[in-house]
Amino acid sequence: MHSQRPASQSCHIHPLYRHLVTLIRVLSHLLQIKLYDVPHTGEQSRPEYPSMDVPDISIPPATAPSSSSPIPVPPRVQRSTTKLSLTELINQTRERHIKARFIDLTDEVSPLRDGNAASSAFASKPHESMQPPSTKAAGPVSASQPAPSNEIRTPSIQEIRDLMRQRPSSNKLSTSSAADNPSTSSAATDPSTSSVASNPSSSSIASATSPLVPSRSPPRSFMSNSTTSTTQSGSKPSSRRKSRAMGVASLEMYISPIKDASQPASSKKKTWTPRSGKRMSYNADKFRSIITPTADATVRSQSLSPSEGRELRRPAGFADTGTDAALAVLSSPSAQTRVPFGAPPVRHEEPEATPSTLPSAIPLTEVQKLESGKLHTHEGFSPRENAVHDMFRPEGIQGVTESIGSLDLREDSWSPNVDIDIDQVRQLSLENVCEDGVQAIPVSTELMEHEEFESMEELVGNVSAGSVAEAPASLGKYRESNEEDGDADTRAIRTSAERTSGTSDVSGEISEQEECLAVLMELEVSDREAGDAEHPNSISSSRTASSHVSSRQTPETLRSAEPLNVVRSGGAASIGQLEDGVESYLGGYPIVTWKSYANAQRRLPPKYNLAKDLPHELQDRVNALPQSYRNSDQARLLFEAMIDEAMDDELNTPPISVINDVTDEGAPPWEFVYTNQMWNGEGVPPPDIKNLKSCGCVGRCDPKSKTCSCAKRQRRHLKQYIEDDTIPKTWNGAPFVYDGKGCLQFFGLPIFECNAFCGCDEDCPNRVVQRGRRYVVNIKKTKNKGWGVFNGQKKIPKGSFIGVYAGELLTVGEADRRGTLYNKFGRTYLFDIDFHHMGSEAVYSVDAYHAGNLTRFLNHSCDPNCEIQACYINEANFNKPLLTVFTVREVEPLEELSFSYMGQIDDDMVNHAKASNDAVYAECHCGSANCLGVLFSGL
Ligand SMILES: C[S@@+](CC[C@H](N)C(=O)[O-])C[C@H]1O[C@@H](n2cnc3c(N)ncnc32)[C@H](O)[C@@H]1O
């Protein structure tokens, strides 16, 4: 009003108009004030800012509005023209919140620290209280700090993107690595990418200047396979799709409220499954006889979002942001959590092998040693892929060729200028080699350089077939050394001759060394030392050499085969000094078979996660934001992105939407890490892979096989159920518990899937859990049960796998301790691992409070449509099966998925639960006609 009027307007405007303008300005001013007043009133009932009650506050960095004010809490009644920036908030709170684990219940989520407070909060309104702890009380107000606006701005997508890119330097590697590789847009979400990229050794190797390694990207052969298969064949999963990584430990659990901590441990918990001696209760029919199937009309009438597709789920432009954001925080830390047995996590413990650090004349075997210790597993790939990947990956090839190169460079003779598409070679090699179930290492690509092949196909085919063609015709069988009952399990190895002729001569048995010959790939290096240009292995005559070498490949000649020139040049390797996975050398080149690879892997420490390494930065950051942010759509999208990232170990699994048409929460509480994996707590041993039995089948296991180790093991465990009529003697398709479509045929039986050391393919019918969920489900807020899991728009068939009950794997002692507090808290995510086939008290429990996946949202129903099954994959410890959720009947579209927290119950249990004061024994709201009124047995 007091500003200068523009001269151009002064003589043309009617005075009335000026009055009108003045009036409008006054009104708008008044209105503005009024508007600003509104939130102040609202704030009194629901504080906009989180509680910042952690005493040891670190002074925020310079980006904070005030360096003397650690907490960006605005005075309630003071209007500020400064809008609070998300980045500022983060910067201010980051240090402090990184220190405090968001999920550390002993710190903020009162149940463990302040059980009574939590109890009262959750007991009165259990699910309304499921808010981030910071919202439960207004934080202290600092008068000295600048007052940000109380008009909280939802951060923009760009801000979130920027924010989430502010990662610890250790995390940057995977992001930049992925970003460096435009050819694999999904690289950022690939666990193997993260894993490799976050490994400084591998990264440094990969980044070394070698024309053999065109980029840092993971082998396209793996990535493109999956992608191609998905896009080209629609929903049909690729046979090379990713599977659960070998290191995913077992999970197990139960929901077990602990009534009285003073009671002895054995009586404190009631498992959801009957104990040993009550096997009858595992009879599915008998179990169902105590319930009356009903439709949950309430649930079904709730409309879910029709968006079931990845594209529909996120607005354009957010997909990347969400992926980046969640990945930035979650993927790298988890990728770095691999630790040796019981040792504290040591990151980057492997020596960095770079051209500068590699000795100039390092023997080949030494390089391999580095490699085997460093990159022997690639999360998300099948064991077969891993084996070949290790040998074909850029770092591997580079590492090996560098060693050769270093020797040759010492001789000033090796030219690394090979102009080939290494990815293509890898891809083709995979196809050629993998089919046989055995792998050989092509050490040098120089062969390809000097050969005169018309195409890559011809090149690889020729190398592969040519070298194998004249292998002993008697090759065909070998004994599975790991056969559990000593019974010989044989596997036919198709030689090249078989492939071409279509016949199979599998008579007789062969030595391991002979077997190796069947898959030998010819490798070439120049033999300067010998100065023999016409050396049979020489590059210049490689096509001839191929047949030459092959023609002298008899067991006798090969046993005495001289290690290759690289060894002669500077190494000590010989047949008698084999490295892990290397069965033999031919011409000095290592040969790896599937069996030797798998056995080598068993000798290495298994990969597993430690609970204390659970990443939580993302959650810390979100919990530091105002509740208004957590209620926003952005928070929901971020939550979905976080889920998406974790589902990388379930490739092709449909995305999960978060839906809330009941309250204004944007997403479930940010109190846990979304993960499909197990995180071992204190005192929980790593997976026992040494005693893991695995089959040597090629392709898909045949359930009728008399030799498949996995079929035999499953058959042994089925026997007792057949004997007691739990399953019919005429069960077709036995012994695998899955039918041809991957649906569980019988319930309550322990499942033994093929594992990481089995030779069979990813699409083996005995690999279901490890291939992940196939049906759309969503996490949705319910009216009186908190969040739940709901079916999408299509029916889910009976026997379908839904998910692994993932989380922290704890000793029962620790679970008891936590359970006492959870009971007061009113919510529990504890499950004991207690199946009748285990025959004893539970040794371990799973707690999904701090970490878990969609299954942690499965509510109880007295008429459940799901059940938990014990499933063993990469675990020989009988006490540590995975707890896997399967549907026990067809699930209608939009129906809630649920299971019984109680298993088989009796009146005593119900009465005991009803008499309890603990919040966890709240009333059951499952809504089924046969509802017993309680969730937990109470005994
Ligand atoms: C494993 S959690 C299930 C997910 C939970 N609804 C949430 O929002 O995180 C178990 C808790 O959910 C609630 N719950 C599950 N089933 C329920 C039911 N049928 N009736 C009432 N509350 C239920 C109880 O608070 C229980 O302790």
TrEMBL record:
Asked if the keyword Kinase belongs to this entry, the reply reads no
Which lineage do the record's taxonomy fields give for this organism?
Answer: Eukaryota, Fungi, Dikarya, Basidiomycota, Agaricomycotina
Sorted alphabetically, which keywords does the UniProt record give? Chromosome, Metal-binding, Methyltransferase, S-adenosyl-L-methionine, Transferase, Zinc
Bias (Polar residues): 142-157, 167-182
What's the protein here called? SET domain-containing protein
Q: Name one GO biological process term.
A: methylation
Q: Which Gene3D superfamilies match?
A: SET domain
Domain named Pre-SET is located at: 693-772
Q: What Pfam families is this protein classified in?
A: Pre-SET, SET
Q: Which residues form the Post-SET domain?
A: 920-936
Q: What's any one GO cellular component for it? A: chromosome
Gene Ontology MF terms: histone methyltransferase activity; zinc ion binding
Give the matching InterPro entries.
H3K9_Histone-Lys_N-MTase, Post-SET_dom, Pre-SET_dom, SET_dom, SET_dom_sf
**Presence of keyword Ribonucleoprotein:** no
Ranges annotated as biased composition (Low complexity): 55-70, 183-237, 538-551
Task: Name its species.
Answer: Rhizopogon vinicolor AM-OR11-026
Q: Which SMART domains match?
A: PreSET, SET
Tell me the ranges covered by the SET domain, including all copies: 775-902
Region of interest (Disordered), ranges:
41-79, 111-279, 293-317, 473-511, 527-562
Protein's cellular compartments:
Chromosome
Q: Where is the composition biased (Basic residues)?
A: 267-278
